[in-house]
Structure formats: structure tokens, C-alpha cells
Amino acid sequence: MRAKPQDRAPPVTAAWAQVGVVATIAGPRACMTEGAVVDALATSRRGFVNFLLGSGVGAMLVSVLYPVVRFLIPPKSGEPTTANVTIPWKPTEIRVNAGRIFRFGSQPGLLIRTPAGELRAFSAVCTHLNCTVQYREGKQDIWCACHDGVYDLHGKNVSGPPPRPLEDYRVQVKGEQIVVSKRA
Prior knowledge:
By secondary structure, the chain is of the alpha+beta class.
């Protein structure tokens, strides 16, 4: 389609078109009629800037949404299949009114010898936010340092934010070995 005479821009020399002054002096109509090179250059610049802006926004969205999706869809991890564990300490090595952390599968466990001399074992994972709990000899309780959660010597939550008791394990003394197992 031919341009109408009133839409035509004034003639422009090749030197002006190379410098890029055509677009600023004659307006956008000059780019359509006289300077195909200037029009291609402006389009490629615009396309390049649009590409950069689009890529930047896309990268920002991916960097924000990826952690959110990873948080909402946790990785598949199997339950520990460990049913019982032999503790590496002899029963005589555990002092009265003391506690020790041990490994129960992939989770920490807590072995306590109560002031009465009884051995008890619990999961050492706090039921609030999965922090590791510890035995406090002075107060004779199990304490979570993360948010000051307190459990009694039976694993029941006494104060603080923990919503439920600790998982209770069965303790058996077989000669010089301590075997801790999950309750059925």
C-alpha cells in the first residue's frame, strides 16, 4: 500500500538516517517511509528491551515462586523403619537424675534415668517445631529451648507451646545392654 502524499515525510539524506536523527526530527512517519534501516533498528532495540524486561520479570517470579512451591510440597521421605536400637552405653554408665541423647533411626532420642533410678526413653523431637529437647537435672523435666516448652518425666507436655506429648519408647535392659524400641 502506497502512502498518501500528506503522510510522506520530507526527504532525508542517508547521512541523517545513519546518525538516527530522522526519528527525532521528522517523527515516526519518517521511519515508516524513508528509513527502513532506522525502523528495523528501533524495532530491534524495542524488542531487545522488551526481552530484557520480560526475562527479568520471569526470573524474579521463578526466584519467588520456587521456594514457596518447595515449602508447600515437601520432599518424599520415608518413615524410619527402625523398630529398636541398642544403646552404646551400659546401664551403669547412666547416672541417676541424668539424660543422654542417642540416635533412634534418623531421629534423636532421649534416655533418662529418673531420680527413682528407672530408665525411660522418649523421642527427643519437640512436638511444637521439631527442635531437639534436653533433660534438665536441676528441675527434673524435659525442656525444649526453642520456645520454652516443658515436658514431665512421663513425656507429657506441661507448659509452653508443644501441642502433644513426646513419643514414648520402651526400654529393656538385657544384661549389659540397653535396648530401646517403639511401643506397639
